[in-house]
Amino acid sequence: MADSEGPLGTVGLAAITFYVSDLDAAIAWYDEKLALKPMTLGTDAERYASYLVAGSILVLEPRSAALEAAAPGSESTTVNLLVDRDPRDIRSDLVRRGVECGELVESPHYRSFLLRDLDGNRFYISRPATDAGRADVEKATTITT
User: Fold this and answer.
1) b/e string for 52-74 if b means 16 or more Cβ within 10 A?
2) Rounded distance, CA 140 to CA 59, Å?
């Protein structure tokens, strides 16, 4: 949102935060299982790690940093990742790395599956499977860039 007239003013950045029970274990899991390296390891009120993922920032913080902490995996927030590889291949690679993945789902326009990190945080891995799905993604990326 770039509208400084709105109630939020100008929003310069949006980041997603996942609260984790063990930050060091989560950092190791993201490295080992997803091959993601933190762009920042820092400390504010608590230690944190942040990752750049497809133009978005994903922040891992200890559960104690949450304003209103919930039980692991009990909330419905999901990071949706649109990928260019076939989700069947990605899922196979992740399963070989020991990542628990949901079943592959074929919808009318997408091929997708769900995975969770150590704390139950959700990632929905998806790729358009039809021209209509690709058009939707093209439209969405045109709006956000």
Assistant:
1) ebeeeebbbbbbebeeeeeebee
2) 23
Could you tell me the pTM of the whole model?
Answer: 0.75
Domain that holds residue 38: 15-144
Distance set, CA 115 to CA 36, 59, 78, 88, 98 (Å): 15, 17, 10, 13, 11
Q: What radius of gyration, in Å, describes the C-alpha atoms of the chain?
A: 17
* CA–CA gap between residue 44 and residue 15 (Å, rounded): 16
- What lies within 8 Å, CB to CB, of 104 at 6+ separation is 87, 88, 91, 111, 112, 113
pLDDT > 60? residue 144: no
Residue 50 lies in a domain: yes
Into how many domains does the chain fold?
1
User: Could you report the per-residue pLDDT of 26-76, keeping only the tens digit for each?
Assistant: 999 999 999 999 999 988 888 999 999 988 899 999 988 887 777 777 776
